[in-house]
Write a structure and sequence with these properties.
This protein is mainly beta and about 650 residues long. Helix content is about 10%, strand content about 25%. The strands form 10 sheets. Strands 10, 11, 12, 13 and 14 form a 5-stranded antiparallel β-sheet that branches. Strands 1-37-36-35 form a 4-stranded antiparallel β-sheet, with no helix packed on it.
Length: about 650
C-alpha cells in the first residue's frame, strides 16, 4: 500500500506490521530463547531489525501480547511469511520476541489480557443503566450512513472548545475508533477484549473476550437483540460478530468470510437496513517478498450478511474472472493474477438508491484489472456491481522491489501504489443533488455522480507519497469537504540528523501536509492551513528510526466536524480545532506533552501519534474522544499500547 521510490527501501515488511490482524487460536508451551533467536535471524530479522516501513521493531513487538505474535503467524496475516515453520519454532520465536511474558495455557480465553504488558485492570461500573439513544450519538464509524463525519448536535458549543480538557483515559492495545450511543461507549482493540464503557467515566459495563479486532463497532436499535440494541464488529479471523449491546451476550458469528491466508479486516462492517456489509483487505503485498511465494491471488471483496442470523447473502469480488498463470519468476515459481483491489475502509450506504459504495486499493500483479484504485457501487440486494470508476490505471505494486531486496515477484511495469484508504462520502448539495466524494493516496480528491460513477471533478490537493496523500482522512459539513493531507513519506527528511534514503531526491514534489476545505460541488479549494512544525515527543516504538527525535507533522486521520468547528489530529500527536470558515486554529492540544493515569489503572501512560488506522475524533454528548499512539501504517509515533482520551469542557 505504498509508493515513492525514495521510501521504497522501507517496503519489504509492511505485512509484518499487520500483526494486529492475527486471529485467535490455542497456544502450546514455548521453546527455548536460543531456538527463537535462530528463527528470528533466519526468517524475521530482515524486516524487523531494523524495522522496515510499517513493520514493528523488536522493541515494539516486545510490548505486544505473546498471543498476538503466535496467532499472527499461525492463523493471521503473517501465515505466508511463516510458511515452513513448525509449531515449536513459532512458539520459540514468539517467546524470543516477548521476553518476560508467561506462556498462556492452551485454550485459555483470557490469555491475551494476562500476557499484555500494560493491559491495565478493568474497573467495572457499579450500575449499568439502559442504553438510550439521543440526537448527539455517534453510533457508526462515519456517524451517519453517508459517512460525513459531521455531528450537528455535539452537546457543547464552539465557545466551550478552548476549555476542553482530558476527563478520563484508558490504555488499549491497538484500539480503534469508538462509537457512542447515549452514555455508552463501544471500542475494540488488539488484546481481544471488546468493551462497552461508561462514556462519562470510562468504567466497564461489560467486556467480551476473544474478539481480536480494530474495527469500529456499529450500534443500532434492533429486535434481533433481546435488549433492543445490537452491535456488530469485524474480527481479525475474518469473521463478523453481533452482540447484545446492553449485555455483551454474543448473538451470532458469521462463517469465515475469506480463506486467503494473507487476508484481514481493517475497514469496519456497516449496518444498513436488514444487512451487514463487510469489506476485506489483505497484506499480500508483503507476502510477495518471499522468493518462493506464488504471487498473487488475493482479491478484495464485500460480503453481505443477514442482520438476524449472520448468514452470508452474497459476496462480490472486486476482480472478475478466474486466476490464471502469468509468468515464472527467476526461481521457477509460477506466478498468477489478476489480484489486489483490497478494501481498506468501511463501505458507505446509499439507502435511497439501494447502493453500497467502496473504495479499492491497488493491483498486485501486471495482469490487467479494472477495479483497483476505484470507487465501486454495488447493489445492496444482489451484490451486482452497478458502476465502477477507476482513477489510476496500471497501479501494480508489491513490496521488496528495490535493488537491495531483489524480490523476483515484482510486477512490470510497477505502479505508484495509490490506494484509496478513506471511505467515500455521499454528500447532499444545497440544490438537493448528491455527489460521491473521495480522496486517494495520490493526493487527489474526486467528486462522482452517484447514479453513474461519472467523474464530475478532480482536484490535486497534496503531492502524494508512500503513505498519502490522502491516507485515511476525509470528512465534511454542510458546506465543505475537509481533506486531511499526510504526504508522510515526503516528510521523513525534515527531522534533524536524517540522511540517506530518507532524504527525498532532487525533483521530488514538496510535501503539503495540512487541512484543506474544498467546495463539494466543484472541488475548488476554499482555504488551506499547512501543518505547523509543533513540539512533540514520541515515547514509543519507532521515534528514532524515522525522525531521530523529531516528529512527523503528517495529517492522515479523518477530520470530524460540528457547527462552527472542524477537529483533526496529526502524527505529531496534536489535536486541533479549526474555524470552518477560515481555517484558523481555535484550539490545540498536544497528546504527547503529558502522561495519563488511566481509568484501567495504568500510571503515567504516554500519548503518541494520531493515525487514521486508529480512527478520527468522535464528538458525542458533550465529549470528544480520540485514540492517541496508534501503531498505524507509518509506524511512527505509536506506543504498542495506545491511549483513549476523553475530553470535556473543563474536564468535568
Amino acid at each position: 500500500m505504498n509508493g515513492r521510490a525514495f521510501a521504497k527501501r522501507l517496503a519489504p515488511a509492511a505485512a509484518s506490521a499487520m500483526l494486529v490482524l492475527g486471529a485467535s487460536s490455542a497456544f502450546a508451551q514455548t521453546a527455548s530463547a536460543p531456538a527463537g533467536e535462530a528463527v528470528f535471524q533466519a526468517h524475521c530479522k530482515m524486516c524487523h531489525e531494523p524495522p522496515i516501513e510499517r513493520a514493528p521493531s523488536r522493541p515494539d513487538l516486545a510490548k505486544r501480547p505473546r498471543a498476538d505474535v503466535v496467532t499472527a503467524l499461525t492463523s493471521g496475516i503473517m501465515v505466508p511469511m511463516a510458511k515452513g515453520l513448525s509449531p515449536a519454532e513459532i512458539q520459540s520465536v514468539a517467546a524470543y520476541l516477548t521476553p518476560g511474558q508467561d506462556a498462556p495455557a492452551a485454550g485459555d480465553a483470557t490469555a491475551r489480557r494476562r500476557t499484555a504488558p500494560t493491559a491495565g485492570v478493568d474497573q467495572m461500573c457499579a450500575v449499568n443503566p439502559p442504553i438510550g439513544a439521543g440526537p448527539s450519538d455517534w453510533s457508526t464509524i462515519g456517524r451517519d450512513p453517508d459517512a460525513t463525519r459531521y455531528q450537528p448536535h455535539p452537546g457543547f458549543a464552539v465557545a466551550d472548545i478552548p476549555k476542553l480538557k482530558v476527563k478520563w483515559s484508558m490504555a488499549l492495545a491497538g484500539g480503534g475508533q469508538v462509537t457512542v450511543t447515549g452514555k455508552w461507549l463501544f471500542v475494540t482493540n488488539r488484546s481481544g477484549r471488546f468493551y462497552a464503557l461508561d462514556a462519562d467515566t470510562g468504567c466497564v459495563h461489560w467486556v467480551a473476550t476473544d474478539a481480536v479486532s480494530r474495527t469500529t463497532p456499529s450500534v443500532i436499535r434492533s429486535p434481533v437483540s433481546p435488549s433492543g440494541w445490537l452491535t456488530v464488529i469485524g474480527l481479525a479471523n475474518k469473521t463478523a460478530r453481533a452482540y447484545d449491546a446492553q449485555t455483551g451476550k454474543e448473538l451470532w458469528r458469521s462463517d469465515v468470510l475469506e480463506t486467503h491466508p494473507a487476508a484481514g479486516m481493517s475497514g469496519a462492517p456497516i449496518v444498513a437496513g436488514d444487512r451487514v456489509f463487510v469489506p476485506m483487505s489483505s497484506g499480500e503485498e508483503g507476502s510477495a517478498i518471499q522468493k518462493t511465494y506464488a504471487c498473487c491471488s488475493f482479491r478484495g471483496s464485500v460480503t453481505a450478511l443477514d442482520l438476524k442470523t449472520g448468514h452470508t447473502l452474497w459476496r462480490t469480488s472486486m476482480i472478475d474472472g478466474p486466476l490464471h498463470p502469468t509468468r515464472k519468476n527467476e526461481l521457477g515459481v509460477q506466478m498468477q493474477g489478476p489480484a489486489g483491489a483490497a478494501i481498506w475502509s468501511a463501505p458507505t450506504a446509499d439507502l435511497k438508491r439501494g447502493l453500497v459504495y467502496v473504495a479499492t486499493g491497488d493491483s498486485y500483479t501486471d495482469a490487467e484489472t479494472k477495479r483497483d484504485d476505484a470507487i465501486v457501487a454495488l447493489d445492496m440486494k444482489t451484490g451486482k456491481i452497478r458502476w465502477s470508476t477507476q482513477v489510476t490505471q496500471g497501479d501494480n505494486y508489491t513490496m521488496g522491489c528495490e535493488a537491495q531486496f531483489k524480490s523476483p515477484n515484482c510486477p512490470n511495469p510497477r505502479g505508484p501504489d495509490y490506494d484509496f484508504g478513506a471511505s467515500p462520502i455521499l454528500f447532499t448539495l444545497k440544490s438537493g443533488r448528491q455527489i460521491v466524494l473521495s480522496g486517494q493516496k495520490s493526493g487527489i480528491a474526486y467528486g462522482m455522480d452517484p447514479d453513474t460513477g461519472k467523474l464530475i471533478w478532480k482536484t490535486p490537493v497534496g503531492s502524494g507519497s508512500a503513505l498519502g496523500g490522502i491516507e485515511w482522512g476525509i470528512g465534511s459539513d454542510p458546506k465543505h469537504l475537509y481533506v486531511a493531507m499526510a504526504d508522510t513519506a515526503l516528510l521523513f527528511g525534515e527531522a534533524p540528523g536524517v540522511s540517506g534514503d530518507l532524504i527525498p531526491p532532487a525533483g521530488t514534489p514538496k510535501a503539503k501536509p495540512g487541512v484543506y476545505a474544498l467546495n463539494p460541488a466543484t472541488g475548488r479549494i476554499e482555504w488551506s492551513l499547512p501543518a505547523p512544525k509543533a513540539p512533540c515527543h514520541y515515547a514509543g516504538d519507532r521515534s528514532g528510526d524515522y525522525t531521530r527525535g523529531g516528529c512527523v507533522r503528517a495529517q492522515s486521520a479523518p477530520p470530524s466536524a460540528m457547527p462552527g468547528a472542524v477537529f483533526e489530529g496529526g502524527l505529531d500527536g496534536w489535536l486541533r480545532a479549526y474555524d470552518p470558515a477560515t481555517g484558523k486554529v481555535i484550539w490545540a492540544f498536544s497528546t504527547t506533552d503529558q502522561t495519563y493515569d488511566t481509568a484501567n489503572a495504568v500510571k503515567n501512560h504516554p500519548g503518541g501519534g494520531i493515525d487514521g488506522m486508529g480512527g478520527g475524533p468522535v464528538l458525542a454528548n458533550g465529549m470528544v474522544y480520540l485514540m492517541s499512539g496508534f501503531n498505524g501504517a507509518s509506524r511512527t509515533g505509536g506506543n504498542g499500547v495506545n491511549i483513549l482520551l476523553a475530553f470535556s469542557p473543563g474536564g468535568r
